[in-house]
Amino acid sequence: MSTDVTAKSPAPAPPGGRGPAAAGGILQLVLDGLRRNMRQYGMLIALGLIVALFAVWTDGDLLLPRNVSNLVLQNSYILVLAIGMMLVIIAGHIDLSVGSITAFVGAFAAVLTVQHGISWPVALVLCLLVGAAAGAAQGFLIAYLGIPSFIVTLAGMLVFRGLTELFLKGQTLGPFPGGLQKIGNGFLPEVGPNTNYHNLTLLLGLVLIAAVVRQEFRDRRRQQEFSLDVVPARLFLLKLTALVAAIVALTLLLASYKGAPIVLIILGVLVVGYGYVMRNAVFGRHIYAIGGNLPAAKLSGVKDKKVTFYVFLNMGVLAALAGLVVAARLNAASPKAGVNFELEAIASSFIGGASMSGGVGTVLGAIIGGLVLGVLNNGMNLLSVGTDWQQVIKGLALLVAVGFDVWNKRKSGS
């Protein structure tokens, strides 16, 4: 007695590889790519979800051109601080003085320009030098005398806050010259014919898209040349499409209002410059090295004291720049300026992927973390959420971000 078994041949695939199987394959590629790069893409996805949620909850007010422009202006100084703070944290340190240095530099700028009539370009240079001196003094104590950064910068926070009170004598001082005000409130000038859009902003958007596409393909080609793992081609194209779409959306929103704020151009230069240093320059690799494994870095010939000194000097310069931006935006120097700015910068860095133990983080991650906090603040203000609940929600966001970092490291170790 025999049993006739007929093997069923698989159904033919749809032409061109389309259909549920192909769609499932693309989805699986995306999920696999996200799983392998969760630290890199996790907060970017979270930022997109937060923007989408608040856009719905505010009936689209969050994404109005005027509000997007205000969002950039309101958070610009925190993003500047977050870039420097990310470098400090990657190096395995912390800086609690940046908020006070921000206030002190704003007060110094007001004394120079308002009381003594010094031209604003000269005052700007002098303020950056003051920030560099403040950062260098703290960096020397930390790097060469071995005093913990927490103690040095906590002392700096108190010293510079007191100096701010002395400079301003407890009063608000302003207004600033028009040229200095434009750093915090100005927009790029309008050029070309009337197109109902800001032409120069549209041009900058096109240049940015070309630069991003070129850089992404260049990075992928370099990874392949060194036999490093690269994401699948379809996932890479999906990522590139998402980046271009985000740039196009932001460009159109800004171009339909007053154009790109000047401070956004400053931020763009900082992101590109510091991103290049941290990815390609020897100094950037040394920062990662001393934060990731200090004894091994020393054995490899890394001059850890020199690197630490320059990291804090750089933080002082960026704190001074942030002080100029916030003072220009408020058009006055205030003794209470910069309060809690250091906490916002630290939170932005950790939300953006920095590790508590050092050696991990990116400049773009700091910007993403700052934007997460900025969108939360702006969205909750539009919804008239009280400041008490705003603090609770931001605290929980920071806790979730650090908890995610700990979980991710444990998962990688296992």
Write a brief caption for the model.
This protein is mainly alpha-helical and 414 residues long.
Keywords, separated by commas or semicolons:
16 helices; disordered N terminus; mainly alpha; 414 residues
Tell me what you see in this structure:
The chain is globular, with a radius of gyration of 24 Å. The chain is an all-alpha fold and 414 residues long. The protein is built from 16 helices and no strands. Helix 3 packs antiparallel against helix 13 (304-330), helix 4 runs antiparallel to helix 5 and helix 8 packs antiparallel against helix 9 (233-255). 73% of the residues lie in helices and 0% in strands. The protein has helices at residues 20-36, 38-57, 65-90, 98-115, 120-143, 149-168, 178-185, 199-225, 233-255, 262-280, 282-292, 294-299, 304-330, 341-351, 363-382, 387-413. Residues 1-11 and 13-17 have low confidence and may be disordered. The termini are far apart.
